[in-house]
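SEVERITY: medium
COMPONENT: batch folding queue
REPORTER: lab tech (J.R.)

DESCRIPTION
The queue accepted two submissions in a row. Attaching both inputs and their returned structure tokens so the on-call engineer can compare them side by side.

ATTACHMENT 1
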Amino acid sequence: MAFGFFSGFFYLLAILYGISDLNSVLESSYLFPLAEIYRQAAASNAGSVGLLFLAFVPSFISCVGCYVTASRVFWTLARDRATPFSHFFSHVDDGQHNPFRAIVFC
């Protein structure tokens, strides 16, 4: 936990030192202010896209993990008959060997 705090703190310091024009960050037309901060720090659009890619890939991977976890929890609840239509959602697909219906529902 301490490692996460210190790495986040140093990342925050780097981001704050990378801002050269705060008004352009606040008035940016981008939907994500970090894009403007990265553009200022890298001084190019390609550099900012690369840095944003490095930020979004772990976020996407963690979202997939959360989705899989939610579907498995839903399947477990359906298996224990704690959800509506539990017989339908608790089915494990024979061909794919996974709870396909619960995955699609989530």
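ATTACHMENT 2
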Amino acid sequence: MATRIAYAFILLINSIFSWLMLTPWALSKLEHLTLDYMKIKCQGEACTGYVAVQRINFALGLFHFIMALLLVGVKSSKDSRAGLQNGYWGPKIIVWLGFIVLTFLIPESFFQVWGRYFAFIGAMLFVLLGLILLVDLAHTYAEFCLEKIENYDSKAWRVLLIGSTLGMYTASFAMTILMYIFFAGHNCSMNQAAITVNLIVLLIISFLSVHPAVQESNPKAGLAQSAMVAIYCTYLTMSAVSMEPDDKQCNPLIRANGARTASIVLGAVVTMLTIAYTTTRAATQGFALGSSSGHAYAKLGEEEVEHGMIDQQPMSARREMRAEALRAAVEAGSLPASALNDDDDDESDDGRDAKDDEKGGTQYNYSLFHIIFLLATCWVATLLTQQIDDIEMTDPNFAPVGRSYWASWVKIVSAWICYVIYGWSLVAPVVLPDRFGH
């Protein structure tokens, strides 16, 4: 867990630094620290704006790409390369910062092409990945609750499932009403269409989830999954209309908070925190993309003791008992003498074995983890730089994040794609019964 938090924190810092580099504010403060003696220039040009953001995110993306290559095939902490993932933080941070410095020596033309094509494609893949994981989470949550209800006849789990379903639907309809009231004036055709389409599709997938044919193929499908998808897609739609430019007088939030520096800074930090959390979750839940095939990764948070009983026996006592059992087995001839050496290797003298939960298998695919972080850097760069010239700068020092029609349409279309993915997860067992074992 500490390793994943550390990588997420690096992504967060990198993203915030990228955002600050959209305007000259950060460099002006740095120059001021040198009493204005040092003037920071990049090949004679200003080091801020579109290319600066692409440089910084390219550096972190390159770092994760190299890490992904170095960690290909690592399946347990016994592999010597596993230390690269979980340790050497000082050298890794130095390498990351070194890459940032080196990117400012690369011509701007490279980053114009990188940002326009490669980073954009990576950003769209990251968005798609998030939608797939959301649908997977909806199914997993509902099936987990149903399993608890069926196995234990638990009233608490039944109340949780029904209550959360009703709560998410209520919140979805409440957000829809608010959007119609505040963001759907007579000149706001884009908002009206987005809100209406979201409401219609929400009702369609809710009906589809309880359709007899779907229920016959997948009895665990139902309104619980639909509610989670509905509230997420409605949130995406509300985020889209509340962050679009106010050139058509369709966004009262900008008129209310547009000149407030605090709201811009808070919005940027929250956005970057969300990206860091989403990335970390996606990077450690690769099963949704089939990454677990061919390798049985240990479940996150899985305990080594699986018998369900409380085990309060000290680790030292257990190690002694295990060593005694191994010696007896070797003397009886049922195990080779090398088993004793293997046991010694597993138990390090510094006590790290008590903290190492990946000896039997890594909890997630290390290479996939870094590939997803690479895609996240592409998304951050694209989010900050798309239609950058059209963003209304209400504060000269800080640029608002995602306040463009491009960002709004990405969220609106993402909601539609999420509905399609979820709808297909319901219909696929019906139209392809052989594929899904029905």
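NOTES FROM REPORTER
The chain has 16 helices and no strands.
No errors were logged for either attachment.
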